């Protein structure tokens, strides 16, 4: 007989599953699809690769000017150098066409491809994963709450699955493939759920870190063991009094060269040219292309090119390092290809859990109804055969 405790846990598990099941399925299946998006896009899109040339990359100001050519009133604040054998890119905001990503040859500035991020299949998948295609503030809240519920579901699922007797353990760890389909479905829900739980919770927490600032700050504080690092919270600004008094056309180039000299082994560079008066030029130098964990950060005055701050990876606090590696953990690439495979399989299992769980509930509901019908029929039969009073 099931104890009151387990009955309560089952009630919580069941109804939380009903509440979050559809969102968990959508978020998990899109996460599963997104895991290998870089590899798939590299295979099908030629513009994501360029021929390596034995010369330096062209200056960021030239890339920016080329991307904005013929686009009256357009602006561009983000410039990317994706690494050896990969293109450069400029994120353009155009009044007529909206947000555009312009791919360019980093050695010649020749435009090789222009696309709206919203037309890229994997960007759409990412938006569904993050926001369900709802407005960002609403969508992220719906997804975030559903993921929190999912974490509770994984924990309550382990409590329900946990075998009472040692003799049950072997059966609880394996799927009885030769059983009836309902038994196989039951095992798929319980056994796969057990094996996926530890990784699924990690994926869930890193996802919550993207959705909620308080989770990100919690990870930061926990990794730093509560120790404050106020120097990492300082926002550096340019001297706005110099606005209009300095020739700033070459500042972004100067800043890029300084960052490249400071991080000579970096493969990828992200340049952010803040358009506000006191905004600065921020440059992040990543150790490996398309990986975001190990990076050095630079901030420059947008009017003079003066270095305002440099934070190399090895001088960052444990909390900042944890936050920096969040994306790489979330998609599994922190462990390379094996990590991506693990993230893919666990996401696939997580997508299956609401489905198999619903089938388990449906089967028990039908069984319960069938039992009631049989009981009613039995009682009627008994009454019919009783002697009349």
UniProtKB/TrEMBL annotation:
Keywords: Membrane, Transmembrane, Transmembrane helix
Membrane-spanning residues: 12-36, 140-162, 192-212, 341-362
Keyword match S-adenosyl-L-methionine: no
InterPro entries xref list: PepSY-ass_TM
Protein name (database record): PepSY-associated TM helix domain-containing protein
């Amino acid at each position: 007989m099931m104890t009151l405790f387990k009955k309560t846990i089952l009630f919580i598990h069941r109804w939380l599953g009903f509440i979050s099941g559809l969102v968990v399925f959508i978020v998990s299946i899109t996460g599963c699809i997104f895991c290998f998006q870089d590899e798939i896009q590299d295979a099908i899109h030629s513009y994501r690769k360029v021929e390596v040339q034995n010369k330096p990359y062209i200056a960021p100001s030239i890339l920016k000017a080329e991307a904005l050519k013929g686009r009256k009133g357009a602006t561009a604040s983000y410039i990317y150098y994706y690494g050896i054998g990969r293109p450069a890119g400029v994120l353009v905001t155009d009044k007529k066409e909206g947000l555009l990503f312009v791919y360019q040859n980093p050695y010649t500035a020749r435009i090789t491809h222009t696309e709206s991020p919203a037309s890229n299949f994997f960007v759409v998948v990412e938006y569904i994963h993050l926001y369900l295609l709802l407005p960002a503030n609403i969508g992220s809240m719906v997804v975030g709450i559903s993921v929190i519920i999912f974490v509770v579901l994984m924990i309550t699922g382990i409590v329900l699955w946990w075998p009472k007797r040692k003799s049950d353990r072997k059966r609880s760890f394996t799927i009885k493939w030769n059983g009836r389909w309902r038994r196989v479905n039951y095992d798929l829900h319980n056994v796969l759920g057990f094996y996926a739980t530890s990784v699924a919770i990690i994926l869930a927490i890193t996802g919550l870190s993207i959705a909620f600032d308080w989770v990100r700050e919690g990870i930061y504080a926990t990794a730093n063991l509560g120790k404050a690092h106020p120097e990492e919270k300082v926002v550096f600004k340019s001297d706005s009094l110099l606005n209009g008094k300095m020739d700033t056309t070459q500042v972004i180039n100067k800043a890029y060269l300084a960052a490249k000299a400071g991080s000579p082994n970096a493969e990828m560079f992200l340049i952010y040219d803040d358009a506000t008066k006191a905004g600065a030029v921020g440059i992040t130098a990543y150790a490996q292309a398309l990986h975001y964990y190990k990076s050095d950060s630079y901030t420059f005055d947008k009017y003079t090119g003066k270095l305002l701050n440099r934070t190399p990876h090895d001088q960052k606090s444990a909390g900042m390092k944890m936050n920096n590696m969040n994306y790489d953990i979330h998609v599994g690439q922190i462990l390379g290809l094996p990590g991506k495979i693990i993230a893919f399989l666990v996401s696939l299992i997580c997508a299956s859990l609401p489905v198999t769980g619903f089938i388990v509930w449906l089967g028990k509901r039908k069984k319960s109804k069938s039992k009631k019908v049989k009981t009613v029929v039995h009682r009627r039969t008994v009454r019919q055969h009783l002697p009349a009073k």
